[in-house]
Structure formats: C-alpha cells, structure tokens
Amino acid sequence: MTTRPTRKLETFANPTPDRDYVIRLDCPEFTCVCPMTGQPDFATIRVEYTPGDKCVELKSFKLYLWSFRDEGHFHEAVTNKILDDLVAVLSPRRMRVVGEFNVRGGIRTEVEATHEAGRSSGE
C-alpha cells in the first residue's frame, strides 16, 4: 500500500496527563517551495511541546510535513501554520515550532512560533 502525504494529524491519549514533560521532534528533511521562484526550500522543523490530553502520532506527523513538499510557502507562514495545526488537534500546555531554513541567496532563515495554553494570541 502506497503512503501518501496528508494534512490529517492523528493523536493518541497522553499516557501521563497529570505530569508535565516535554516531547521534542526534529524533522531534518522538510521541504516546501519558494512562492516567489518556485525553487525548493529545505529546512529542519523542530517541535517541542508539553502535552495536555493528547500526543501527536509520528507517522501522521511525517505525512503531514510531506504534504507541504510541492506547495509555495513563505518561511514565516509555514512555520506558523504547523504550530496552528498542531495546537488545533493537540491543545498542548505549551508548544514551540522552529523552522531552520537552509541558506538561500546568502541568507539563512530561522522562524520560531510559540503557544502557551491560557494566553491569547498577541500576548
């Protein structure tokens, strides 16, 4: 059976919901396309979160990241979209997503987006 990219993120119950602990995911093979030139952009996506009631299932997260491969995205937009989508399905206590984009035109870009439960956006 062929595996295909998808935006559907699967979850499972946090096995220790009464304890704060940190999950770190490093994804060094992220790709999307520059919306200005159509050329590929390569990045490492780093996710760090303290789960609430749910954790992200890793194969679904891999297929989710793969779904960006042929789409045009600015670095800032795609990093924030990944954060928004993960927060929507997980409702974590805290989450940080960092996009470390490879050098393009002599510039290396790093975008960090954060979420903390109970804080409204913009705080």
Write down the overall mean pLDDT.
94
Helix and strand pattern: EEEEHHEE
Helix run count:
2
State the strand order across the main sheet. 2-3-5-6
Could you give a short description of this structure?
The protein is of the alpha+beta class.
Give an overview of the whole structure.
- A 4-stranded antiparallel β-sheet has the order 2-3-5-6, covered by helices on one side. The chain has a two-stranded antiparallel sheet with strand order 1-4.
- It is built from 2 helices and 6 strands; from the N terminus they run E-E-E-E-H-H-E-E.
- Helix content is 20%, strand content 40%.
- With 123 residues, the protein is α+β, with helices and mostly antiparallel strands.
- The protein has helices at 58-66, 75-90, and strands at residues 11-13, 23-33, 40-50, 54-56, 94-104, 107-116.
- It starts with 10 loop residues before the first strand and ends in a 7-residue tail after the last strand.
Characteristic key phrases:
alpha+beta; 40% strand; globular; two-stranded antiparallel ribbon; four-stranded antiparallel sheet; 123 residues
Topology:
Layout: E1 11-13, E2 23-33, E3 40-50, E4 54-56, H1 58-66, H2 75-90, E5 94-104, E6 107-116
Antiparallel strand pairs: 1-4, 2-3, 3-5, 5-6
